[in-house]
């Protein structure tokens, strides 16, 4: 039972963690020029 | 296949500028997330040679999960919903290419597909091609955007995941 839960958690983490990283990386930030004008 | 699914999310990103890459990437993993739940419940399992995935990866259920995931994004509009559904369903398409014939038509159907056996060891090359194509499409789009998104990290991460996958399987 515990082995099955660990298996399941690993399966889920293998998709969720990289997706969070990709989401963070792809989030648009203001362009450098626009930031400089502030 | 693992990294190839994230590459599908990268490839879909330019087609739906209002969809988040995070949402697309989770979408490409929905079938495996359901598989994880199935494993915990003891109704799914298997190994790399043959997966037992009636409720997560069969064609009928892949369509159901695609529609359900799209419905979660209904507030974002039809274009984002379509992209999210495509992200989920891309998992079925890519898995049919590399799996042995264990991708069922519907749960417990006797009809199942998978080109893995027929392709021999060539599935890895097809995944490499998927990664290369996804990264190329995403980078070409992201570089044209008028902001400073960290596209190099996103593209590099998917290539690193592929390298990790190859290392783990060899």
List keywords for this structure.
heterodimer, A: 38 residues, mainly alpha, 82% helix, B: 170 residues, two-stranded antiparallel sheet, 9 helices, globular
The structural class of chain A is mainly alpha
Return Rg of chain A in Å. Answer: 18 Å
| Side-by-side strand order of the widest sheet of chain B | 1-2
| SSE series of chain B | HHHEEHHHEEHHH
Count of extended strands of chain A: 0
Shape of chain A: rod-shaped
- Total helical elements of chain A: 2
Integer average pLDDT of chain B: 93
Major beta-sheet overview of chain B = 2 strands, antiparallel
> On the 0-100 scale, what is the average pLDDT of chain A?
82
Shape annotation of chain B? globular
Share in β-strands of chain B: under 5%
Oligomer state of the chains in this structure = heterodimer
Task: Explain how this protein is built.
Chain A is mainly α. Helix content of chain A is 82%, strand content 0%. Chain A has two helices and no strands. Chain A is rod-shaped, with a radius of gyration of 18 Å. The mean pLDDT of chain A is 82. With 170 residues, chain B is mainly alpha-helical. Chain B is 66% helix and 5% strand. Chain B has nine helices and four strands; from the N terminus they run αααββαααββααα. Chain B has helices spanning 3-12, 21-28, 30-41, 54-57, 59-72, 78-98, 116-119, 123-142, 151-169; strands at residues 45-46, 51-52, 103-104, 112-113. The radius of gyration of chain B is 16 Å and the shape is globular. The interface between A and B is medium-sized, with 26 and 35 residues.
């Amino acid at each position: 039972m515990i082995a099955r839960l660990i298996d399941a958690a690993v399966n889920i983490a293998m998709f969720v963690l990289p997706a969070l990283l990709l989401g963070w990386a792809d989030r648009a930030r203001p362009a450098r020029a626009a930031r400089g004008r502030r | 296949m693992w990294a190839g699914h994230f590459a599908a999310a990268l490839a879909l990103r330019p087609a739906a500028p209002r969809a988040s890459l995070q949402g697309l990437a989770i979408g490409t993993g929905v079938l495996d997330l359901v598989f994880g739940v199935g494993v915990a419940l003891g109704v799914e399992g298997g190994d790399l040679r043959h997966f037992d995935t009636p409720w997560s990866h069969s064609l009928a259920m892949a369509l159901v999960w695609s529609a359900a995931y799209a419905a979660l994004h209904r507030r974002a509009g039809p274009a984002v919903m379509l992209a999210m559904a495509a992200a989920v369903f891309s998992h079925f398409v890519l898995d049919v290419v590399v799996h042995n014939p264990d991708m069922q038509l519907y749960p417990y159907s006797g009809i199942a597909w998978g080109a893995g056996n027929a392709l021999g060891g060539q599935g890895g090359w097809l995944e490499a091609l998927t990664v290369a194509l996804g990264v190329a499409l995403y980078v070409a789009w992201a570089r044209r955007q008028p902001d400073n998104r960290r596209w190099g990290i996103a593209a590099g991460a998917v290539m690193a995941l592929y390298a990790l996958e190859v290392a783990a399987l060899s």
